[in-house]
Amino acid sequence: MNRKGKIYIALAVFTLLSIVALEATKPNELNWFPSYAKHHKIPMGTYVFHEQLDRLFAASKPINLDRPPFEYLENNPDVTGTYVFINNDINFGQSELDRLLDWTSNGNTLFVASSALENQLLDTLKLETSYLSQLDGFGFDYELQLKNKALYTDKVTFNNEEIQSSLLYFSSIDTLNSKVVGVVEKVNSSDSLKVAHPNIIKTPFGEGTVIVSLFPQAFTNYFMLTAPNQQYAASLMSYFSEEQPIYLDQYHKSGKIFYSSPLYLMLNNKHLKWAYYIMLIGVVFYIIFEGKRKQRAIPIVNPLRNQTLDFTRTIANMYFEKGNHHDIALHKIQHFMDYIRTQLYLSTETINTEFIKNLAARSNNSVEATKTLLNTIESISNTPNISASELETLNNLIETFKSKHA
Questions:
Q1: Which of 62, 223, 328, 367: CA 20 to 30 A from 335?
Q2: Residue 32 domain-assigned (yes or no)
Q3: pLDDT digit string (tens) for 268-304?
């Protein structure tokens, strides 16, 4: 390889290592997934809310429930207190909603904070909702305010630029029974007149109370860690009774309470995740190319059969069937003479006493046996017709002679 090629390879390796280093040192992007899970410290988790709730209500010791509300209330029908549901979307279902409302009507409090509510709950409480920024798009600052003068009533600002979500408000409420707890309005709206819309209401239900909020973001880490938003969230917590237990739902959550996948630790780490993906891509390439090489079976090619022996047997049978023992003997003698020339390296032009001695020495045979064989060959060569027994005798003498040399 020339110098120019080595420089190109070095530049390619340096570029690759630089990309890997930049990716490894790049800060992780914020996870804006609306989990509302207790253990999540991401912006839309509720770790701070649960931490503060445990501090403010240490006497009642808030109880976290990871079971369906229907199951818990069926197994514990006599429990009393406040049942709190916080998530971006809550859908109880008719049976579970009826069970919760029955429990609430016995003098308990049902607190639901969700960006989307099911129609059964809205119909029961005679509520209708609408989007605050349905026509104007995203990217607004919203001002939130509580109406109870005994609570924190200053306006707090919420910006939805990062989470890109439209806020809901109650476009219609049961004015005879429902009381507005909180309102929301757009700060930089293009409307000529800003209007405060109700987004938190409180409704008596039987002997109990239902509080519905369309702003669950008030309990997220993102909202509570921005001053003075924590005062707004703390004022909402004042609707939880200190004298009765507080049940915090951990079942209706978008974020998982636990991770059932064994690959969670690997996929949660950026470097391990990409190593895993590269391994899978490599396996796919291996299957494609390796499978392509082996998908065509190699045909079995049988070697050509050596038919020399069969041909020889055929010719021998022809001679034997015709009874031409003399011709067979001559072929046998001719083949033996060729054996002497090629294997024992002796000339067969002159057969005399010296030739017999040399032949006997080189073949490890006695001189008498060698003489007997050569005399038999000479006798058969000069006889026009021989019998089968004479042919057999010649063959035995030749084979015995060759066996001594081998």
A1: 367
A2: no
A3: 667 777 778 888 888 887 777 766 656 566 788 888 7
> DSSP per residue over 119-148, as a string?
HHHHHHTT-EEEETTTTT-S--EEEEEE--
Alpha carbons 303 and 149: distance in angstroms, whole number: 104
Same-domain check for residues 227 and 286: no
Say if pTM beats, i.e. exceeds, 0.70: no
Structure tokens at 343: 């294997």
Q: Find residue 185's DSSP bridge partners.
A: 143
Asked if 325 contacts 386 with a C-beta cutoff of 8 angstroms, the reply is: yes
Burial class (CB in 10 A: 0-12, 13-18, 19+), 168: buried
Q: Give the span between the Cα atoms of 177 and 242, in whole angstroms.
A: 25
Same domain, 20 and 169: no
Structure-block tokens of residue 355: 């030739």
Cα–Cα distance between 48 and 220 in angstroms, integer?
Answer: 7
- End-to-end Cα distance, the chain: 59
Tokens at residue 142, please?
A: 């919203």
Same domain, 274 and 244: no
Instruction: Please name which of 286, 203, 330, 252 lies closest in space to residue 92, comparing C-alpha atoms.
Output: 252
Whether 41 maps to a domain, the answer reads: no
145 found inside a domain? yes
For the four alpha carbons of 99, 57, 249 and 245, in that order, the dihedral sign comes to: negative
Instruction: Look up the domain containing 22 and give its range.
Output: 3-27+264-294
- Asked whether residue 137 falls in the same domain as residue 234, the answer is yes
Q: Tens digits of per-residue pLDDT, 69-119?
A: 999 999 998 999 999 999 999 999 999 999 999 999 999 999 999 988 999
β-pairing verdict for 197-205 and 179-186: antiparallel
Looking at the 3D structure of the chain, how many domains does it have? 3
